[in-house]
Amino acid sequence: MAGLFAAPRPVTEKRAAFRAGLESGRIQRFPGAFNSLVATLIQEIGFEGVYVSGAVLSADLGLPDIGLTTLTEVSGRGHQIARVTDLPVLIDADTGFGEPMSAARTVTVLEDAGLAGCHLEDQVNPKRCGHLDGKAVVPTEEMIRRLHAAVAARRDPGFVICARTDAAGIEGLDAAIERAKAYAEAGADLIFTEALRTPAEFEKFRAALSTPLLANMTEFGKSELIPAATLESIGYNAVIYPVSTLRLAMYAAEAGLREIFAEGTQSGVLDRMQHRSRLYELLRYESYNEFDSGIYDFTAERGR
């Protein structure tokens, strides 16, 4: 049964859809998925893509977002999520997990994991969360070597390599723009400028570059939360909501656990829980039952 154990759409088509979306004139919305079930929900609701955040993966492992995760952990989670959805999946590859040669290997591993693209950033390795103070960026030439290695290692030209710069909050907006131009010249397909603050800053960045641009609309950070329609009117091509689903889930989980602790029962929070039937619907229990009975519901002929 097609699509039962993995999404039926080939990864080459997902990558092509990502690239077509970036050129469509319509903003591509990529909510973050902290697991495969959330990715399934993102597709069902109708978004254009799925994002896998390094900060979310770190938090899921009980770690701060300071460069402690490994390529194996990141690619493994990316594979789990990409497997279940027909949507393109963009993944956070931090600084490429080392020197330029490591960035090159990172691209090949993420290609093999079924991702549609990744972003590499110009922070000093190990990195830290893009909305924290105290970040440091490598010289532009070093990031260009990182990008050259990543682009050279790419086997599928459809795989999207996005360059992220954290320079705006360190060297200023004009310096970040110059870096972004250099990164595009080095082969980046998409540019992600972290921690811009206002619509005016997003507009200035758009006016300075012709390369497709990605906006980060993370909550409680340095950026004003700008609606997708406004970003589209400015000329942005994609937007990520990296931590939103984790924050929603953790807020609900904490409230429910405190209720159970205080009351000794979960009966007062049932109306805030996903029903078993809805979970089974997302997991397609019925389709698995049909698949299983279709294969094993038979009688062997005598003498065979």
Automatic annotation (TrEMBL):
One of its GO terms (molecular function) is methylisocitrate lyase activity. The keyword Lyase applies. Transmembrane segments: none annotated. It is an enzyme of class 4 (lyase). It catalyses: (2S,3R)-3-hydroxybutane-1,2,3-tricarboxylate = pyruvate + succinate. The keyword Lyase applies. Its EC number is 4.1.3.30. Pathway: Organic acid metabolism; propanoate degradation. PROSITE patterns: ISOCITRATE_LYASE. Its cofactor is Mg(2+). Keywords: Lyase, Magnesium, Metal-binding. SUPFAM superfamilies: Phosphoenolpyruvate/pyruvate domain. It holds the Pfam family PEP_mutase. InterPro entries: ICL/PEPM, Isocitrate_lyase_ph_CS, PrpB, Pyrv/PenolPyrv_kinase-like_dom, Pyrv_kinase-like_dom_sf. Belongs to the isocitrate lyase/PEP mutase superfamily. Methylisocitrate lyase family. Catalyzes the thermodynamically favored C-C bond cleavage of (2R,3S)-2-methylisocitrate to yield pyruvate and succinate. PANTHER family: CARBOXYVINYL-CARBOXYPHOSPHONATE PHOSPHORYLMUTASE, CHLOROPLASTIC, PHOSPHOENOLPYRUVATE CARBOXYLASE. This is Methylisocitrate lyase.
